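User: My collaborator and I are trying to settle a disagreement about how two of our proteins should look. Neither of us wants to argue from intuition anymore, so we agreed to look at predicted structures for both before our next call. Could you fold the first one, then the second, and keep them clearly separated?

Assistant: That sounds like a sensible way to settle it. I'll keep them separate. The first protein:
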Amino acid sequence: MVTYLVTGGTGFLGRHVLPLLLDRDATAEVHVLVRPASTARLQTLVDGMPGGERVHPLIGDLTEPGLGIMTAPAADHVLHLGAIYDLTAGDEQATTNVDGTRSVIALARQLDATLHHVSSIAVAGDHPGRFTERDFDLGQSLPTAYHRTKFEAEKLVREARDLRRRIYRPSMVVGSSVTGEMDKIDGPYYLFPAIAALAKLPEALPVAVPRIGSVNLVPVDYVAAAIVELMAAPGRDGQTFHLVNPRPQPVREIYAALAKAADAPHPAAGLPGGLVRSFLTPTPHPALETGRKLALRGLGIPPALVENMTLPTVFASDATRDALRDTGIEVPDFASYSDKLWTYWIEHLDPDRARRSHPDGPLMGRHVVITGASSGIGRSSAIATALEGATVILLARRTEELRSVVAEIREAGGEAFGYPCDITDDAAVERAVEAILTEHDHVDMLVNNAGRSIRRSLYRSTDRLHDFERTMAVNYFGAVRLVLAFLPQMRERRFGHIVNISSAGVQFATPRFSAYIASKSALDGFTDVAASETLSDGITFTTIHMPLVKTPMITPTSHYNDGPSMSPERAAAMVVRALIERPKRIDVPVGTLGEFGQLFTPATKDRLMHQVYRMFPDSQAARGEVTTDAAPGPPRTEDQDGESAEKHPDGQSVREHNDNKPSVLGRAARQIGRLVPGAHW
């Protein structure tokens, strides 16, 4: 029986090595050094692995003295895979790469085991020309902290004269040639988004690729298979193995293979490398260097990557190929598996993959949160959005009504989930958001529909500051609270869309709605600023300036309204359009008319609105009088999901209305409105 002790066993390369160790010897026992927090990860990894019961966690840490191990198990081989593989990391990686290697050497000596140290071709630094498996310190410069720490770690192993050891130097490792699997964006993967952008152009369009040199790429399955085979090869102690492609690959060749996989334009010509080399290499001019780095970071490419992507070194691998002769283990041609790398990246690693629409529809499979969803526009929007294939996640305070909407959507074959929540309550929102993200993983879109509207003149509000506080609590702070709660995961996924329901009244500054209009105006201002900050992260906003909407709870004051009203279903269609098309705003003509008036004739607009104020006095409810002629309807109590005589049930900023034939003034306003273009109406 052979026993192995492995560091870095849960890492990308380790996940490919472990099953090969188990498969090579049916009696082999493997102890994997893991931090306490990673034991569950290791267990998940080995559960689906043949022979996984022979893998045992060894609690410890590469960065701790003595690896943090209380008692080390006996082992014939110590395979040191654990390290930080990151060109962009700084000197902090020395704790893992150098100090960790020093501790592993001490452990191998203690166990009298053969140390198998996985180094990197980075030890060659900027050495020009041929670099053999016997070469090490040739006076080369080490351009990054990664190069330096890998060099220092290998030097420690080489200087341990009384230690049986073998050293493995992989070149740049990419995903599996079989499955395409890769664990992170690294190396050439930083260039994949640019290729994806080019793929939107006609495939027949020729492109020119600069002649900037060659790279050396190997798939992870080759590296894992070679290491396991070379560990068992007799008589190889003291040797170093280059796990590299024997033939360096020109950048144009790499691009051609990936372009074919991505259906992007093919390379038809080469450009002199000097045209772009100044962009790829550091410059001594501070201003130019700052600009170069900012431009690269704007493209999402670490400067250290482009500075070290192409190699001045040619790595000989004679000893490695000799040792692997007749094993069938060899580096496959990049073009033979580039399609697998591309497909895996598209499906799992593309940072913008969440932005892609489902082929069956733009809302198909999207997770859409809608507040104030128990009635009115919220209810109608939830039903309409579910019909588009979205999974609707509904928030409202009224539990029974919320359950009814969820049941109605499910009976129609849609996906719906309800979460009772008061959006003015920090703790309630925190609980709801945590539950939503736990149960649904992410949220793609948010519709801030819940709201409160109060129709009361300013003179009757002088002793009612709470009118202003409660409208702000729902309409502004409630909406912002949810935006802030979902924003981090939207940023992580690089996609999100937020629809804020505002009011055409904001554009007109409708009299007697000072509390309501102020709260919605605040939300409009927040939205404009937020949209400018989140754009590059794929997070966008739509503001809907909703017109008058027909809802049952506004009937008690219907005789004070004189405008045409929109049905909740038509309003819901505007919400669905905002989710699908994601425009900056959706207005109606009458709202645009008010905005033009404020911009070009503000004094005239004030006089007009003053006449409206005088023509339509406060309702009996706003005056605090008991009414006996109010139309029957739901109780006139305040709710985020529905409005009383002073509020609207959809939580929308619409003035109260009736279904009667509009007056001459109403008809005239409507005719003028038809002449005014709205934004996206």
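The second protein, kept apart from the first:
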Amino acid sequence: MEDIKEKQDTINPQSVDTAALSPDERMIQEAFNDLLKDYLNSNHRRKVERITKAFHFAKQAHDGVKRRSGEPYIMHPIAVAKIVCSEMGLGSTSICSALLHDVVEDTEYTVEDIRNMFGDKIAQIVDGLTKISGGIFGEKASAQAENFRKLLLTMSDDIRVILIKIADRLHNMRTLGSMLPAKQFKIAGETLYLYAPLAHRLGLFSIKTELEDLSFKYEHPQEYEAITKKLEVTAPIRERLFQHFAEPVDAKLKAMGLKYEMKARVKSVYSIWNKMEAKKVPFEDIYDIYAVRIIFDPLPGVDEKNQCWDIYSAITDIYRIRPDRIRDWVSRPKANGYQALHVTVMGPDGQWVEIQIRSRRMDDIAEKGFAAHWKYKEHHVEEDTELDKWLQTITEILENPDPNALDFLDTIKLNLFSSEIFVFTPKGDIKTLPQGATALDFAYALHSDVGNKCIGAKVNHKLVPLSHKLASGDQVEVLTSRSQTPQPEWLNFVTTARARAKISAVIRRNRNETIKAGEAKVLEAYKNAGIESSSQNLDRLAMYFGFNKRDEFYYSVEKGEVILPDNIQKILKDKDNNVLFKYVKQALRMATKSKSEADDVSAPIAPKPVYDKKKPYVLREEAFQRNYIIADCCKPIPGDESLGFINDDGNVVVHKRSCPIAMRLKSSFGERILNTVWSSHQTATFEATLEMKGIDSMGVLHEIIDVISGEFNVYITRFLIEANDGMFEGRVKLRVHDVEDIQKLCVRLAKIKNLQSVSRIAD
């Protein structure tokens, strides 16, 4: 690409005398100067004049408006443009669009005004950003799917729309401290649920990591602070280990004449916490907290891939390799464009060390994602990228989305955050699938017709069922039959969004056809009996057979589960059935009321309580009456980090902040989320479960029970224990007052000889 260097005196970042400006004006001008400096240091064409024009236009449009933090609003678009420029590597079109991204939504200017001043492309991007403004999720479920569809469709039009949207969310997360706690939970939950997976799928590794860490910081501040402090305390130890490891490798690579940098990369706080939670181990038992990264500049005339393997060879001459931990993403990049060679070796201090070997180009793509491809487009990037294939998959799903908004979001999410496997067709073609994909997923990856007619598969020449999980390197031959059609149970074992969408579409279509056929039979029966097929008469017949929805009734009729009587007239004139009809209709009207009100048909509808979301909601228990409901999915107890969800009855349901259901509620119903604090619960008790593992020995069970019931006077409601091959595992369900009770009990139990681990689990 020809590097056109225009005269930079069009606008000099230092040409404005900031000393003469007001404090706000000086802050704005200095921020814009920094943006221009970053842009001029990039390899993009020098189009400073249009960026300056966009800046002045946005500054004038947002004049006088302040953010919640108190700073001028224009500081936000400048910050988003800076992320787009320096952290994503995008050019002037994206920078201008970022500067203008809130103008149409927040001011009187229109997309036409933007088009007249800045051209079609910038207007199209700003229009795309305006359509998906206000967060991905609306307050109503029906709007959620529509907004999400808009987001994904704009990706197909121009990928820069979603890249700028992610940059916008990143800056909002960086400045989230000025928001109210309930708003923080909503935004953090939404970010972790959707934006971080999108950033990951687009290859924006550093941004994805920061989004996860910032979300974690606001959702679990205590855990975040604890892990951060432990990382600081253990940093000198890691530095010594790295120096011991690096010295002989440095000498070897320098002897090869390579130009490179070697550094230790520490795992993110969120990923450390995730591993602690998944493995149920403390911080001290996480051994892969850091990895070594080697980034090299390719030697002239030498292939990058070959150089990766040359460095691999040099390292394995020094250190012993762990064969099962080689990851070759150089020959076959990940679907998000990531390329690197990973190898794990035994370091000089007796610890396994992961090494990531990348060229400078590979590192750029890993950190900045697909945008970095453009930097190397002349020599390295093919038009038919993996991203194009992924966007094509999304387009197919959007053609027939699930009508349930939350299911639709989950369907899309299935493919966002998954590891990949590589599977071969009988002819040797490679298909990329998510980890855990089945033979049926593979069939749908080939073609929707192949999936719909699939009856089984041969994996490595052995016959397997549709539900068989595939592994990297498998060769798969799909077996089909013309008489086969998708079955509802297929949804239980497919993992890809494409397969799930195709199966659901066929099942819905078949079900609708069955319902129509059943309806025709019912209407024919009414006609033969000489009775009017009014809505009331149809409802009455459906309720007689136990259905409160006509579609379900029609479906059962066509399936032969309901046999229509010869004399429909008798059923409709039956007095008992008329009473039943009135009762059921009344019950349906009462469905939105509380159970206690439903018992009394004449009871007035009680007003739902109003909650002040600016203040924490205090979880109290007075005279054995609680002002909240404990969620069954995670069963929080006093002392747990928690949040409240206002249900349809107006009651507050308390979840742990780490609960997966709570994450879904935060991201989908943010306006119903409350920040909660526990009051002292001195008399009330709550259910908690401990998991214990240890060496099976005489008296250990007696000692455990003695500590729990004797020393701590804690009531045991259930105790399950199983011994096998000299080891035992047990679960004990207890009634405790709060988290502090659990912590003290775990500390004491851990002192029992032969009891190797004890921890609280969700049950």
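Some points you might bring to the call about the second protein. The mean pLDDT is 80. The first helix runs from residue 23 to 40.
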